[in-house]
Amino acid sequence: MKLHEYQSKDLLAKYGVVVPGGKVATNAAEAKAIADEFGGKVVVKAQVLMGGRGKAGGVKLFEDSDSAAQFTQELIGKRLISIQNPDGMVVEKVLVGELVDIAEEYYLSVLLDRAEQRLVVMISKEGGMEIEQVAEENPDAIVKLHVNPAWGVDDFEVREAVLKANIPAPAQRQMVAMIKGLVQVYFKEDADMI
After folding, report:
1. Quick one: residue 172, left, alpha or beta (phi over 0 = left, psi -120 to 50 = alpha)?
2. Torsion over CA of 71, 79, 194 and 134, rounded to 10 degrees?
């Protein structure tokens, strides 16, 4: 089963993974009320099961709740089309989330490495939205940590992988905690990919 972003955030938070706050809206009035709760400074994200939502016009930052509501009005019912989904998907709901100041973006995933037949954690300092391009142009920028299915990962293994990925010191502790939480979610929720 594929999860929308808001569903994934709820699941991750249940396991102690830190996620920004947000709520789902299906119309402009709901979006405005949620945006007001966050002081008007929000991000509105189309909740469709496809990659490339931002480039398709489905993600936008706002400084006030009226603008967030107007964008939601325009987005609901619209078909978003991306390179990853040329047929597109119709937006039925949006996530209205608190605006966070992003100093840097990293890439982190937990998935099955079919060749190794083990879970793998992939970390990159060159993360964000273009990880496929990073993998193609600079594969050494992606650190892989294989997880033993019998006992999971030890703290020292996770710390070593985070260091190898050149994650800056101020972010290392949070990254280690996040990785451990994601591995826990993967096993306990029988995930395919996080």
Report:
1. alpha
2. -90
Distance, first Cα to last Cα, the chain: 12
- The CA distance from 131 to 137, in Å, is 10
- Domains recognised in the chain with CATH numbers: 5-98 (3.30.1490.20), 107-188 (3.30.470.20)
Cα separation of 140 and 118, whole Å? 20
Contact 40, 6 (CB under 8 A): no
Please write the tens of the pLDDT for every residue from 143-184.
999 998 888 889 999 999 999 999 999 999 999 999 999 999
Kindly state the percentage of the chain with pLDDT values over 90: 78
